[in-house]
């Protein structure tokens, strides 16, 4: 099997591992928008913003450092032992600090103590599974990776239904148990379902963890930390890019607008599904192929394929948006923010391109550039939201997201040409992105419910792609016979 076939196979399986859980999460948006009002949905959004932020702090780039050093040192077990031991020990210390200083943090975060304790527990369990998940990826055990991911979301979905729909019907009103259940906010049960899912998934990893030997190589750890810390900061700035808009909308326009914006924003999950699946397959592939002479050419082919597929996904989501809204948004109060969808989809397309471009600074050990680009993106996000939300409302947040990811993409592209040249088909890629963006906005603004015109535009784009990229896809997906 060619390296492209291996990459496509892994990406397809990782896609299942990403698409199915995210698809379930999208379905849960329907449940959550049914049982929660927009201001309560805003609480749910804040919780997962905090989870994302602290996950970046708890893992401090060690996952990416593990990929880099594990492939560099030909799968030396000491890399695995050092990375896992580092996260195990540090996460316990960090969680202990969060627990000891819970009183002031509860006041700052404005959450109930039971929710805060669930929050700490999820952080611990998720951190302990980072290196085991990375180990499955780097050793091409994509099927097992997919199984664990799907199991996690299946348990999460089951307990969402159990707590929010079935349990209130099982317990009778007037009983002490029912009264206790009703005393908790409904969002608490969403978080509790997440904790149960993380715990049961962690149990699946226990046999693997029993084979991991704890160990510590201080010299190696310092090198991994030096590589990983800029990745951590890049992750934190990325989280700011993704979440500052929600916090700013809550501050300027209130929880109701923020909740509506956050729910509709999740329609962009269809693009995130693709980006996540691609990244999960591409990251180990890039590192494993880095020593091959034709690696830059391989990376260029993959970039073109990514842009083509990403553009098709963006157009497909806009084309079927009326159906998507009907299926997933159960409360009309959320639809006030629907105009953000084409902008967010395009922003995520640029984010995916940026992830592809990041190969150059990861392979040349210049991760500080990733930190720099993410910082610039975060600064753009913060400044544009503060400046424009009072002027144009929630659309400011969508345009700020697009501006941030566009600038990060351009900066990474031009800087990467200096340190690690990859022969990207720049003009062709730019043409495809621009064409798909224009068609998406035309579909949404002028033909939202006109299926004939939307189908015609989509077909024309397919013909264009076929004429432009027939050879690229043959290069990616054709079997190579051994001589």
Concise account of the structure shown:
This protein is mostly helical. The chain is built from 21 helices and no strands. The two termini are 13 Å apart.
How would you characterize the overall build of this protein?
By secondary structure, the protein is an all-alpha fold. It has one domain (3-477). The protein is built from 21 helices and no strands. The chain has helices at 3-35, 38-59, 62-72, 77-100, 102-109, 113-128, 130-138, 142-170, 176-183, 186-211, 218-253, 255-265, 269-289, 295-319, 321-328, 341-357, 359-363, 367-392, 395-419, 426-446, 451-477. The longest helix is centred in the middle third of the chain and has 36 residues, at 218-253. 44% of the residues are buried.
Number of domains: 1
- Number of beta-strand segments: 0
Largest sheet: none
> Which value, in Å, is the CA radius of gyration?
23 Å
- In whole angstroms, the N-to-C terminal distance is 13 Å
Average pLDDT level: 82
Strand fraction = under 5%
What overall geometry do the principal axes of the alpha carbons give?
Answer: globular
Specify the number of helices.
Answer: 21
Q: State the helicity in percent bands.
A: over 70%
The secondary-structure element order is HHHHHHHHHHHHHHHHHHHHH
Low-confidence stretches: 476-483
SS-based class: mainly alpha
